[in-house]
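Check these lines:
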Amino acid sequence: MPGTRSADGRATAATTAHLLRRLLTGRAAYRTRWEQQELRRSPGPVSSSAVARVLALHLWDSGERPGTEQDLARRLKDRVHRALGGES
């Protein structure tokens, strides 16, 4: 059925999300980068908005996305939130 995931898919997404959160909180260099982009403290262990801003900055700096895409961080935020939550 389209749009549904198997139990294996959900388990893989949850495991991946756990590993991602561990990387973002456990490695000082990673944590420092996204914490510097935090505009306000979020309730969870990792701010999806701050991580999205770090990703947007990287994409702009690398030339993968034009600097004119000023809404890039906002568009990435939902994807980051889902990834951190094990939803995708």
In short: The mean pLDDT is 90. Helices lie at 7-26, 28-36, 48-62, 72-84. Residues 56 and 62 are 10 Å apart (CA to CA). The chain has four helices and no strands.
